[in-house]
Queue: 4 jobs
Job 1
Amino acid sequence: MKRIVFITACLAPGKDGLGDYSRVLAEACSKQGHAVGLVALHDPFCEEEQTESLVGLSCLRLPTAASWAQRVDRARSWVSEFGAEETFFQFVIYGYHPKGLPFQAMPHLMKLLKGLPGLSIMYHEPWIGRAKNEAFHHRVIGSLQRGMIRQMHRQALPYHAFTSNPAFQGLLQHHGMPTEVLPLPSNIPFRPEQAHLFPAWIQSQGVSLSSDTLSLGHFGRIPHQWQWENLLEHLPSLCLRTNKKKAAFIFAGRSDRESSRQLVREFQKKAPGIQVLHLGPQSPEMISSFLQYIDLGIATTSPQILGKSGAFAAYREHGLPVILAGEAENFRLPLPQHAVTDYPRCFSMDAIPGQLSSWIAYPLPQDTVQTVAQQFLQAYPPKESVYESSRH
């Protein structure tokens, strides 16, 4: 049995995707027989320190109102009291500053990480300004972020470093941070016993979706740029391949309300016969029911970094065919320029598979959480850090 502590910025359930991810993966490690704890270093949803149990796991949540020195000292003592043998730091730079420039936080984070036992780091998102077509100010901010992350990595001396996709792996490697790819598990577990929830919601809205309707679903935030016009143009082909006469779009999860309204107006203008429904933020059980109901999942993340998408992980968990509708990220470095995934049921709009009807009729749900937990656990006992010589 291992004693592992997951460390992230925020652990408020349903409020922070990275916190939800940490909790789900920690729970999976616990189910495999390990003692697991959770620490939130920068939680804006608690006014004072909270020590509580989340999904049966010991948890420490530290408020943003406390000073960084106080939080680092408290986190270090809590990890020590827990008897942690291994620590897994989940990092997104925006978790520590709304504009992604945590100049105040970074020295304290480095101080904390340097003393943690068996440290691994998961880089969920490196830095902005990666693409050729990004605005100059994004490239400036990205350069500052990259400098902070490189300094943190070199001082922390992790035994393992992970990221979610080969493109980010290549980006980090290029800047002196070797990583392994650890896929994201789904935050939405497959719940077949809850399949009735979404059809009941549809009925309560007075909406009718007939059996000859192709239901396309999008889960998560709606990005400002994605290939929605291209998707509308390919709808006749999608309907033809699936023997459907019409189509409906269903959007679920948190999204900017005005962006959603604007998208509906654009859809109605371009294709007035299409039904558009908004489910909004819901419980994991309702989202699972929604994912079991729809025929196709829409992935709006750039295909090259598909592995970073929690929505894609949820589609995969539920065995859905996934259509790639994200704008390509034109990296400035020679990184993968296409989707890299071992999931066979995803496709681009210009390559609609002949077996699509079969995929819709026979979904293949996967337990992504236990699979990823096992992959993480197998990385230990820690191999010698690539920086091990610096420790002595």
Job 2
Amino acid sequence: MRKPRGDIESLPGDGWIRLKPGEFLGRIQLNEFSKMTTDCLFCRIAEHNSDAHVIYEDDALMAFLVLCPIRPGHALIIPKQHFDYFDDVPAELITAIIFFGQKLALVMKDIYRIPRVAFLFTGGDLPHAHAHVIPLHEKEDITSRQYIAEQELTFREAARMPNTELAAIAHGLSCALASRNSD
């Protein structure tokens, strides 16, 4: 059963983020709907119990590379707390994910010399809210079946990128993000 969002300005203890004047992101209080679980891969990654090529981490968010990317640099941004659906995530945390996604997109544009980066929330493949940030080299990198004329298509899994390549990409993105933050 999903918890109704209700008013995020309600009294503390309801599990939603609280902001103090001048604070960007407050502390998330755990509740029965946002507890981390060992059954969830992203929760294990957030607790450093599963390997990932992390490019960013703070108290509330983590960003890491996708092992089988659409394009090199394809990253996920997750809230560290477990929320099955993106519409269950508190607005302030969604805002933090989007702001970080913009920073990452600017870095990707510089590194990959591309004009566009895709940003989308998904959750159908794994029940932990997450956003994809994907450098777009071709307009077809992300598309909908609605735009494809052929009825019969064969899809294949994206290839697993070698760890050495993932590590090099993660290092490059991390360094670019750090230098952008120090500006």
Job 3
Amino acid sequence: MDRAVTPRIPLTEPAHGAIAFCGAQLMLLPDGAVWWPEQSCLIVADLHFEKGSAFAAQGALLPPWDTRATLDRLAALITLLRPRSVICLGDSFHDDGAVARLPATDRAVLTGLAGQTDWVWVAGNHDPAPAGLDRMGGRLSEEVRLGPLTLRHEPRPGEVRPPAGTIWGHFHPKGSIALAHRRLTGRCFVFAEGLMILPAFGAFTGGLDVRDPALERYFPQGYQARLAARDRLLPVGRDDFLVPRQVAFARRQTSAGRGGLKRRPDPDPA
């Protein structure tokens, strides 16, 4: 690795990080991962390795460091937690050619990480069976059943009420809340009694607003959330999130408060 990365994990501060979910005691981490101490299992979703190079091939000039940034954070977590298993919950690679586009140094780091643990690549919609995955270590699976939990990338076709204990990625949930005279936007964990949706762990992954009907349809009785704010997680209820039109209004108000000058949009933290 070119540089050391210190993961932002308040492991000594259980407030708002430790939750009981369907019989599993989980630690939600501000970096967007889940640590399951009882199983010594680290769970991450939507790494989207080589998204930057995929967009560059289409003429969109994104910084080419997304894979390295994601790997640095993932490696730091593995070094700190020393998990027996790592479950990557789908869309680990942005497309079928992403493995081939990995720079040699990043390929070596990722292969080394996968060789340290029982590593599972859950199939995603972007990477159902990416070419060259067999050379990266780990194993490919449609889903993982571990204790009381079922880990998949996304809902099955037509599925709205999954079995209790289901964890998905796929949606990249993020949300915005109003704090005094400013707006805080960040990636978030969303969960109710039997379903949890993880934020995207990867850099440059974007996100779907938690108040979007495409996500809320899976939580008809409402949900709880943990919003990532730098090195901590904030507990947020559904009704505390701004709906997208409120976010747009807040942006206009901020611009007007600065003399009408056009304000640069906030970088998408998801």
Job 4
Amino acid sequence: ENLEQQQQLYELERENNIRRERIILSLQILAISVGLILIIGWLYIFYRRYARRLGRLNGEIHQKNREIKLRQSNLEEVNAQLTKLNQEKSHILGVVAHDLRSPIASVEGLAGLLKSDPSLDQRLRGHIDYILKSCEKARHIITDLIDVSRMESGEKITTQPMIINKLVKSVVEGYQQVAQGKQIRLSYVPIQEEVYAALHEQKMERVIENLISNAIKFTNKGGEVKAEVDQEWNFALIRIIDNGIGMSEEQQRVVFERFTKAGREGTLGEKSLGLGMSIIKEIAEQHGGTVRLESRPNLGTAVTVVLPLIVQV
């Protein structure tokens, strides 16, 4: 009888333990379910907020994109108008500069005829010399303006193989009188080899003239200007060196700009339009070359035009 009671008690205790474990397991499942529901609810709320915020951001992005496209369209329109105006300006500049050649040539011719009159006194001859010098300066300015106009219109050049030595030597000889007028020693430093490059003769002659003219202009009386031709790897070099007043670093940064702020008077008050160096650079680039500049204030300047070399077989 006692055994049966003990057996019954054991069974009851075992059943209670099983119920307790089931209750605990149910509570754990319930707790996990509640936790998952809370997490899912929090994620849903976060998603709704994020979705609303994302929607607002997308709306702002679309609005910004529309504004950017509108501004881009306006900029393209303005750019097209500026391009057209620039082309018209270049055309007008070229026409005006070209048309000015004739009256200046007429004034120069008449002044030359007057100067040839042996009956003129010295005072009038001085005035006529001044007129002739002014005409020469005007011709240089007109040539610069025409060059700029042609370059802005995208002018293509035709080149042919040429000996650079001869071209540089010829220009140096042509500027001897100008250099002597300032008591400047202008020399051509010859090399034994003939250096060839594909050149547009008139344009490259203009480059050398501008370089020598600038060197003389910014060199004091008694100074020296040298013109050199050399080879470096696959390149031909035209180098003009002077011991003149030189340039500051700030001037060197802007010297190749059109109508540059680096433009200044020469050592004897010679005027400058601020176009010469920009024309030199653009002509060099038309030939597939570049321009190097080295200068120090009061010590001088060296300008080197670098051109593709033609090797003669």
